[in-house]
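Journal club side-thread
Mid-discussion, someone asked how the predicted structure for our own chain would compare to the paper's figures. Pasting it here so we can look after the session.
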Amino acid sequence: MSHYFMNDLTLESKPHEISFTINDHNYSFLSDAGVFSKNLLDNGTFYLLKAVSELKLGKTLLDLGCGIGILGLVIASENEGVEEVVLSDINERALNLAASNKERIKTNKKIEIINSDVYEKLENRRFMTIVSNPPIRAGKKVTYRIYDEASDHLENGGSLIIVVRKQQGSPSVIRHLQGLFTRVEILLSKKGYQVIRAWKEGTEG
């Protein structure tokens, strides 16, 4: 059985648009079968975008498990301080869509698209912010790798920002992150979703 966190190019392609509004700005993204939340903006992504809308995220950002690129591209569009964004996923169809959506956004920010299994192709890269809506259905082996290896890809003072539903284990994720990072904070908690930020040592308040 195929899933959005797999690279299955045998699925029938049915491209279509999904539209949504963030901070009174309207967006239209190209989507397709075989990608995460193919027919609409999922609640977790929406809440993460709302939670970070007024935060200082630094100049460099990684959208890990980017899917069709919504998190990274919207942040690039909305956040003036972010100058460079890397969109990374294992799903080639999602990355092709992310490339198309990059053209739709028409941002002047530097956008790079990388096919990578979690951090595999990002060995020597470090960012001020990593954002992710973790692929919970891929299992803990994948999602906890996102958490466990994040510090190696963050600049000092950088942070990991994720969204996890309470019923999918956000309390245990928070406890795990507290063992990895110097500071962990819940940025937003709404309708069962929690947006969590974990800082690497060296951050200022």
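Post-session note: DSSP finds five helices and nine strands in the chain.
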